[in-house]
Amino acid sequence: MSVYSLVIHGGAGTILKGEMTKELETNYHKGLENALDAGYAILEKEGSAVDAILAATISLENNILFNAGRGSVFGKDGSQEMDAAIMNGQNLMAGAVAAVKNVRNPVELAYTIMNKSQHVMLNGNGALEFAKMNKLRLEEDAYFYSEFRHNQWKQMQGNDETALDHNIIIKDKKFGTVGAAAVDIYGNVAAATSTGGMTNKQYGRVGDSPIIGAGTYANNKTCAISCTGHGEPFIRAVTAYDVSCLIEYKGLSLEEAMNVVVHDKLMKLEGEGGMIGVDTKGNAAMVFNSEGMYRGLRKSDGTKMVLIYK
Ligand code: ASP
Question: Which protein residue has the closest C-alpha to ligand 1 atom 4?
Fold first, then answer.
């Protein structure tokens, strides 16, 4: 019997204590705790890492505070397009969805693509069709709307910047993407990531989250990783896979590898954000180069924490 653990994130960025109300902080804590509980309950019953991360990610998608599923950010054209991915480290199977609208739980769609299609990634209308075919739950635009995200977008309307948009909102430079990584009692690892992407993004823009190896990766030989941050540098750095490579080829520990990638390699590309990860031995780590990252972990050795700031 090995150590099992679950680690989650709800996005990284300029999250400053001074700008947070007590009530909001409590709600973020509750949201993270609920997601941890949902995933951990599965691990405790000797369930699989895949099922645990799926449950944790769905819980975060359903929470309007996070930029994934309900509460996703608005793109330049005022629409909410979502990206998500899931990967099973046991067999290297993966599923991903890009720029999809109206699917209540994009990570569930990624999971269904992994299990029921011959493909790894579907996008846009094709992804929506596949969701309908598999009777996944759809929602009207109104379900995804949140005043907070709409205001963020309104602040940026008329601005022609796309990828680096969040840099303009100096006071609110947050990436609210969600993700989870777990290792189960059998030593299998899995990771998932889900996001609305970046505020005011170009219609059709796809970030790192659904790209296997960039925002999401899992391999039983090494680790499972879910990233959050400014997607473009994360794609160029092949971030999640790089952590796995440093472990596999250089013999680094999980945390050492994550530190190299987040504090050295990403910094050189001005890649702001962070990541969470587990390895097959039950280690879990949460590393970021931004002011804060919504994050939490729970392990079978009794460790339990939920944190926001540095
Ligand atoms: N990485 C995501 C993206 O670029 C954003 C985030 O992590 O919040 O789409």
Answer: 231
